[in-house]
Amino acid sequence: MEKWDVVVVGAGPGGSYAAKTAAELGLKTVFFERGRRPGDKNSSGCGLGQRWWRDFPEIMEALQGLPSVRKVEMVVINLVDENNRLRYRCGTTGSDLCANRWPHGMDGISIYRRDLDPFLADLAVKAGAELRTSTLVSDVIMENGQVKGVRTEKGEPVYAQVVIAADGAMSTMARKSGIRNRWGGGCTLVPQLDFSADPDKMDDVIGNAEWVWFGALYGAYQVNFRDGFHIGAGQWLREDWDEKPTDMVKKVLQFPAFQAMCRAIDAKPREYQAHLLPWLKKPPKTYTGGMMLVGDAAGFPCPLEAEGIWHALTSGKIAAETAAWAISRGDTSERALSEYERRWKASPLGKEHEFGPEFVDLWNSTIFDPKLMARQIQLLLEFSMLHPFSVVFDWGDAHMDCFNQHLEHLLDLAPQFADFGRTYLAPLARGIWPKNVKRILLSVKPRIPVLGKLPDNTFLRLVAKLSKSLAPYLDPAVNQEAPLPREVFERSRKG
Ligand SMILES: Cc1cc2nc3c(=O)[nH]c(=O)nc-3n(C[C@H](O)[C@H](O)[C@H](O)COP(=O)(O)OP(=O)(O)OC[C@H]3O[C@@H](n4cnc5c(N)ncnc54)[C@H](O)[C@@H]3O)c2cc1C
User: Fold this and answer.
1) What are the residues whose beta carbons fall under 8 Å from the beta carbon of 102, sequence distance 6 or more?
2) Average pLDDT estimate for 146-161
3) 184 CA to centre of own chain
4) Residue 443 burial by CB count (10 A; 0-12/13-18/19+): exposed, middle or buried?
């Protein structure tokens, strides 16, 4: 009978990193992949952001040398109106903070999964884990309500003290073990079209950037690699879903600005794919006796922009460490493995999900609803006229008159902006660090007649008394940097 300390199902980023960590901790580890090679079955490629330099610096350094890598120094945002005309193009920029935050500032990378996944799986093998490819795991072995191992498609039983399920959004392991059934509307389908392109022309035209396209459509992104790029446009799988996945991507293909970009870099369509991606307000339960879920299987992708690979590695690491801890105590029961949930919630991964409901509501009312987006894009375009350069290059009148005309126009639209702000942006305010709220208040204090002369602490106490919603920020006991936990904030609002 085959018996391991840890069996990992799936050799995507989450599974490989869990296997690597478990092997490094001295656990006898095997990991299974249904594809012939890790990365064969996954979406074509991905962008990896700045926090990789903080959390996985050696990996990030080593990835730079792989063939498909393109550096990412900025995001180019394209706003397209209802008639498909490109009306506004701008880029995220780098401040001094960005330059000094990590040794590599705001730099990230884009990389094809055919490079990334085998690289990560190799790290696990080098650490001592055994990789078995072309092996579909089809069931769990349950004894007395606890997972004791897995069964392959050929019926072979493989026993383990702990199973780590890293088998992606469709997770067979989550369903067979009874942790979870369907996602219940929280999963997106992302159709994606990959293009080949001339790498030198991409350097000239695209540069080191990701692109996004916002219009009267599902928000679409363009991830740029060394010698190609893909575009994708997703949507939650809802009951009222009536769009063909390919039609969502086709809308981007119709933009003249997109077509011009394709001509300039000799782009040719290469591969069409459609994948599921969990995009949830809150991850559901992530463990049971003998088993933990990581990465997409657990519903961990970021609720703001669905980045999921950092989340897969981070949860894979925490799961493997929890497995080592539980095995060393001789207790892998459901109760013992609840430690996993405690640990991920206390980590940066848990912090990421603190604002899940607000982020998902925001997208529900914008990029995931093409009808609403037709209106929101117009508001965004109006707002973009406040950009200093837009006003400087309006030569329709004397410059100060132009400015006033734009201001007047925006003031006319203010009720619509206010409505959107009140509903979707104001709830995010509780994420502002208390120390920043105090700094804002103290910077306006000198300008308030009478109150301006009060000592700072008296002034802050008075403001806290006058405004119930500011009270939790101004409580001296509140941690200075962490956003306020939802419960504290809601308790204080209810009084
Ligand atoms: C279109 C698209 C674009 C994305 N872009 C980005 C991005 O730019 N940046 C980013 O950070 N994230 C991105 N994501 C999210 C990211 O791809 C996922 O969050 C990440 O891949 C999750 O890793 P994972 O290891 O949990 O699961 P997966 O990557 O899905 O890996 C699961 C692995 O398990 C294997 N497997 C599944 N079932 C079985 C089984 N029963 N037996 C054996 N093997 C099995 C699969 O073949 C696969 O290799 C994107 C997702 C999609 C769909």
Assistant:
1) 50, 53, 54
2) 97
3) 19
4) exposed
At residue 100, φ and ψ (nearest 5 deg) are -105, -5
DSSP 288: E
Higher pLDDT, 475 or 289: 289
Give the N- to C-terminal CA distance of the chain in Å, as an integer. 60
Domain ranges for the chain: 3-71+104-182+284-353, 354-431, 432-495
Pocket test for ligand 1, best of 307, 315, 318 (most atoms within 8 A of CB): 307
**Taking a C-beta distance cutoff of 8 angstroms, is the pair 168, 278 a contact?**
no
Residue 239's pLDDT is 67
Please check whether residue 168 is in contact with residue 297, taking contact to mean a CB–CB distance below 8 angstroms: yes
List pLDDT tens digits, range 267-289: 999 999 999 999 999 999 999 99
> What does pTM read for this prediction?
0.93
| Ligand 1 pocket check for 15: Cβ under 6 Å | yes
**Higher pLDDT pick, 448 / 172:** 172
**CA–centroid distance for 54 within its chain:** 17
The H or E element that residue 323 is part of is helix 309-329
∠ Cα 448 454 460 (to 5°): 85
pLDDT surpassing 90 at residue 342: yes
pLDDT in tens, 397-407: 999 999 899 88
Ligand 1 neighbour 319 (Cβ under 6 A): no
Which of 46, 111, 137, 305 maximizes ligand 1 atoms within 8 Å of its Cβ, making it the mutation to test the pocket?
46
Contacts of 463 (CB under 8 A, 6+ apart): 441, 470, 474
d(CA 230, CA 271): 9
What's the maximum distance between 2 C-alpha atoms anywhere in the chain?
86
Please report the DSSP string for 210-279 in residue order.
EEEEESSSS-EEEEEETTEEEEEE-EE--TT----HHHHHHHHHT-HHHHHHHHHTT-EEEEEEEEEEE-
Nearest to 475 by CA among 212, 237, 465: 465
pLDDT given at position 494: 66
CA dihedral for 370, 372, 375, 380, sign (positive or negative): negative
- Scan for tokens 């997106």, then name that residue: 188
What is the rounded distance in angstroms from the CA atom of residue 19 to the CA atom of residue 128? 9
Q: Please state, as a whole number, how many other Cβ atoms lie within 10 Å of the Cβ of residue 210.
A: 22
User: To which CATH superfamily is domain 3-71+104-182+284-353 assigned?
Assistant: FAD/NAD(P)-binding domain (3.50.50.60)
Place 240 in a pLDDT band, splitting at 50, 70 and 90: low
The C-alpha atoms of residue 153 and residue 136 are separated, in whole angstroms, by 5
How many whole angstroms from 168 Cα to the centroid of ligand 1?
5
The response to whether residue 309 sits with its C-beta less than 6 Å from ligand 1 reads yes
> What is the SS3 string spanning 360-407?
HHHHHCCCCCHHHHHHHHHHHHHHHCCCHHHHHCCCCCCHHHHHHHHH
